[in-house]
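[job 0417] fold request received: Spermidine/putrescine transport system permease protein
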Amino acid sequence: MRSAKIWSWIAFAAGMLYFFLPLIGMFEFSLRARRGEYSFDAYASVLGDPQFRATFGYSVLMALFTIIFGILLVVPTVFWVRLKLPRWRPVIEFITLLPLVIPPIVIVFGYIRLYNTSSWLPLTGTAMGTNLLLMFGYTMLALPYMYRAVDTGLRTIDVQTLTEAAQSLGAGWITILARLILPNVLVAVLSGAFLTFAIVIGEFVLAALLNRPAFGPYMVWMGANKAYEPAALAVIAFVVTWACMALIQLVTRLSAHTRAQQR
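[job 0417] inference complete; emitting structure tokens
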């Protein structure tokens, strides 16, 4: 037992070193913008760049719209499948897994082919239409994570009983979804939302090929034209992603604590 415990700690330490050493090296390199001493000049340069603020703000806005659209699409779908179409559940799960095996470049070329300026619905002809296509693409990329998060949340409640009780009191479908189902799976929805946010912030292919001013193409441009700023930008992107993961854990723990107090 003692030997197994020692080897477990050794494996854990090796994994931590494998994960953190490159990040430490990248962070240390990002501090070398000033010759002969460490400084945060690279971070100041990135944060003071108007293009950084514009692209990051654009991606944050697109992430919010993608999260809202994803919630409106996924929550009713998962609810209806679990309530009325349980035999279709494997089919729906297979469909939601397709974005993991279909490359984003195939998706975006399909969009360009179907919705170019000479098609029956020329969405790429306007900035608003292209933004709409980009939001649809982001939603598709985040679909496996949002769907599984909501599905896991719905497994913890008795959907059939709650729905029948609400209907017996005269509630309609919108009321059931908005005031009964959504509050009970709010933690799962927030988990999917934070994962969606992390995906949108770092995505490159869709935004680049649709020629939108997103944060992903900006990071690639920075990496090709600067020396120390790309490392600083990568550290900032990692911090944003870790913040999303921390918020997932925080919301989950607060929800568990609240439920324990209510019991």
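[job 0417] notes: Residues 53-262 form a domain with the MetI-like fold fold (CATH 1.10.3720.10). The first helix runs from residue 2 to 30.
[job 0417] exit 0
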